[in-house]
Design brief:
The complex is a heterodimer of chains A (about 375) and B (about 375). Chain A is mainly alpha-helical and about 375 residues long. Chain A has ten helices and nine strands. In chain A, the strands form four sheets. Chain A has a three-stranded mixed sheet. In chain A, strands 2-3 form a two-stranded antiparallel ribbon. Chain B is built from 15 helices and no strands. The chains are: A mainly alpha (about 375), B mainly alpha (about 375). The structure holds iron/sulfur cluster (2 copies).
């Protein structure tokens, strides 16, 4: 019975190694569907009236500073806003073609099931909690802001103006309150039940139910069900979600996107040194052969030169010897001739009346 | 040397002093008032010219170190030997100052060692970049140290370090391969933000391949500059081999650029991004591909064939610019392309100022090292380094 399973494992392993580490990891990441009891929030923009009560509640429970315009000043809705380090959530107004009334949509962290921010952070400053929330630990953060680059929804914000302890800020889904059994601040304050807090699975069921019951009121798409591998915030809308400023985000989660590149690392580490050492070996061997051939050629050349040099040397030596002998001969003859001449002169002088005979007699021997 | 005393305040040195002084003021502002006070970065644009230029271009352009030392020691191209030391020196300085520049960009610069020693985020490609760069800076420092040790006269340590050349070179190539590609891989996580013409799951491969071109081009380009400024510091071997090195690098760069052109083409075909070519971004993409990939490839090939050093040098300028343009595109120009114009990023003059400051620091340090230490020539007492 296990034979089949064994074989398929074997086949899988073979295939996997043939395709490289990439696919294995990607496949491995596929299986994570979030924590089973993870909570979330469903935002139904058909119910949202843009009252900004959720913004106010968020600031209160998180001790955020008051904004310049009061929360009951709804004129701020006329300009597009985004979250920042002092504002974890904003509501924006969208005037869409074909609808009389504007639509409102709340923005905050979507608490992804496989968060890009957490996957991107190189010090593990982000945690995906079993309650579904994604929280951040500022004591670890290096402030590289790669989490901000990575988040597909452009959520994390940064305290650019703090020179000493600038932190990344974003909605925490009120993780501390959830732990105490309370509702997230925004959900609690919403007067229109546009926000529903609950288990993600239940929220999906509720959302499907609403779409089924009122097919002409809703777009048949629960934003967040699949986006970026699934998020714990879910959205219903009467118009395509992109018209409410929601980014087009693929279904692929961040870990799946990057597993290929990460999986290549061990391959590189393993294979490169072998290849490089090989290249070095080959070039060394080439050199060695070249060196041997060169040495051989040099030896031959030396031998040849030696032989011819020997000949030349001998001739030269012989010639030199001859020359030398001749020179000596010549010198001796010359000396003898001179001595003879001197002797004759002295003899003549002795025979003449003697006046100056001091130096005489030694010179012939000296000159010889 | 003595004439230097008289003419220390040359226009070049005055400019250098001016930039360094300005840089110190900006440095003070950055660390006293925060990143927001000197940059145009915001919540939509967390990475600007400090990442795009100082990190991405810096690391790519410092690739000359691994390209040259691998050619010489691993692939047996011995006539590159005189080019190794200058290349290693620039690479070491390049990486060192990449780390220095990074300090400006980080919110908590003193926590930079955290990912290595305190909390390892192993799922992050930035973790891999950090790990590799940290290790590689160390490797480069050791590879470079003989120049300093010869200058200082520490013969014993120097001879020991020379023995490590081979393993260090291999380690250097492994580390370079990894982080050069990981820098590209950083952007794989953001398919929604990077324009499709530049986004690809092959970004790591593109970054790696183009880093080889960057390395080769920089060796030629720097050689040109060094010959202008530091000619008297070069020995005969260096001068004799310089042209051969330039032509060799040019030939390699020409082939690699051609290959790069075709895999990019292949990538566009695979993702079927052809329609984008008719847009403004498409036009810019074509400028990059033809002006800074195909053109330098062609110029390099022509220069090598005609043995025209001048042409090769012109090609190297295009090669270097091409890398800068590519890294800018991926990290800034084609990044956040869907945001409305008002929310796009453009660097502040102070950000650019800091980048210029860092480049000036590199050049000044290089000039100091090259005048004092045996980089462009062989130390007469140490002729065994082959
Ligand atoms: S929405 Fe962004 S910040 Fe929130 S969990 Fe997902 S990736 Fe992280
Ligand atoms: S800014 Fe902080 S939290 Fe974000 S990725 Fe960097 S270290 Fe992690």
């Amino acid at each position: 019975m296990h034979r089949r399973k064994f074989l398929s494992l074997l086949g899988g392993a073979g295939l996997a190694s043939a395709m490289g580490a990439t696919k294995v990891r990607a496949a491995g990441n596929h299986t994570f569907n979030g924590y089973p009891d993870a909570m979330g929030v469903l935002h139904d923009s058909t119910r949202c009236i843009g009252c900004r009560k959720c913004e106010q509640a968020c600031a209160e429970v998180n001790n955020l500073p008051k904004p310049s315009a009061a929360y009951d000043d709804l004129s701020v809705l006329d300009t597009k806003r985004r979250t920042d380090a002092k504002t974890y959530t904003v509501v924006n107004k969208y005037n869409t073609a074909g609808l009389e009334n504007p639509i409102f949509r709340k923005q905050q962290c979507n608490h992804c099931q496989e968060p890009a921010c957490a996957s991107a952070c190189f010090v593990k400053a982000f945690t995906k909690n079993p309650d579904g929330s994604v929280t951040y630990n500022g004591d670890l953060c290096v402030g590289c802001r790669y989490c901000m680059v990575a988040c597909p929804f452009g959520v994390p914000t940064f305290e650019y103006d703090d020179p000493l302890d600038p932190l990344v800020q974003k909605c925490t889904m009120c993780h501390p309150r959830i732990q105490e059994g309370k509702l997230p601040g925004c959900v609690e304050k919403c007067p229109k039940e546009a926000l529903t807090f609950g288990k993600r699975e239940d929220l999906l069921a509720i959302a499907r139910d609403r779409i089924r019951k009122y097919p002409d009121r809703y777009e048949n798409h629960i934003y967040g069900e699949k986006e970026a591998g699934g998020t714990n915030w879910l959205y219903l809308s009467p118009v395509p979600h992109t018209e409410l400023g929601m980014p087009v985000v693929g279904k692929t989660s961040a870990p799946e996107l990057t597993s290929g590149a990460l999986g290549a690392v061990p391959m590189v580490v393993g294979i490169w040194p072998v290849l490089l050492a090989g290249a070095y070996g080959i070039s060394k061997r080439k050199e060695k052969i070249a060196a041997e051939e060169k040495a051989e050629a040099v030896r031959e050349a030396i031998e040849k030169t030696q032989a011819s040099a020997d000949g030349a040397m001998k001739t030269a030596l012989d010639k030199a010897a001859k020359d030398k002998a001749a020179a000596v001969d010549r010198e001796v003859k010359k000396a003898v001739a001179e001595a003879q001449k001197e002797f004759d002169e002295k003899l003549a002088a002795m025979q003449a009346p003697a006046e100056d005979d001091s130096d005489a007699g030694e010179s012939p021997e000296e000159e010889a | 040397m003595s004439h230097n005393q008289k003419s220390f305040w040359t226009p070049g040195n005055v400019l250098t002093a001016f930039i360094l002084a300005g840089g110190l003021v900006l440095t003070f502002l950055r660390f006293y008032k925060g990143i927001g006070a000197v940059t145009n970065l915001d919540d939509n644009n967390p990475w600007g010219v400090w990442i795009g230029f100082d990190l991405l271009c810096g690391v790519a352009l410092a690739a000359g170190g691994y390209v040259t030392s691998a050619s010489c020691y691993l692939f047996g191209l011995k006539h590159y030997h005189s080019a190794v030391r200058p290349a290693i020196t620039t690479a070491f300085l390049g990486y060192f100052f990449v780390v220095v520049a990074l300090m400006y960009d980080l919110g908590h610069p003193w926590r930079l060692p955290y990912p290595l020693v305190y909390s390892q985020g192993t799922t992050s490609l930035l973790f891999e970049v950090g790990l590799c760069v940290a290790t590689y800076v160390t490797v480069l420092f050791v590879e470079w140290s003989p120049a300093a040790l010869e200058w200082l006269g520490f013969r014993k340590i120097r001879n020991f370090v020379i023995k490590l050349t081979l393993p260090l070179t291999i380690l250097g190539v492994v580390l370079s391969t990894m982080h050069q590609s990981s820098l590209g891989a950083l952007f794989v996580i953001a398919p929604g933000k990077l324009h499709p013409l530049w986004y690809s799951s092959f970004l790591p491969v593109f970054f790696f391949i183009s880093s080889m071109v960057a390395g080769a081009s920089m060796v030629i380009f720097e050689g040109t500059l060094a010959h202008k400024g530091l000619h008297d510091k070069m020995d005969e071997t260096h001068l004799k081999e310089a042209d051969g090195v330039a032509f060799g690098m040019a030939k390699a760069a020409s082939f690699i650029l051609m290959g790069y052109f075709f895999i990019k083409l292949f990538d566009i075909t695979m993702d079927n991004d052809w329609a984008y070519l008719a847009t403004g971004y498409g036009a810019w993409f074509l400028v990059e591909m033809f002006g800074f990939v195909a053109l330098p490839s062609f110029l390099y090939a022509l220069g090598v064939r005609e043995k025209n050093l001048k042409l090769v040098r012109i090609a190297s300028v295009f090669g270097v610019l091409g890398i800068v343009i590519n890294r800018f595109n991926v990290s800034m120009i084609a990044f956040n392309w869907q945001l409305p114009a008002a929310e796009r990023y453009f660097p502040s003059w102070m950000e650019v100022g800091i980048s210029i400051f860092v480049v000036t620091l590199i050049v000044t340090t290089y000039r100091f090292i090259a005048t004092k230490m045996p980089v462009l020539y062989e130390h007469p007492e140490y002729k065994d380094a082959h």
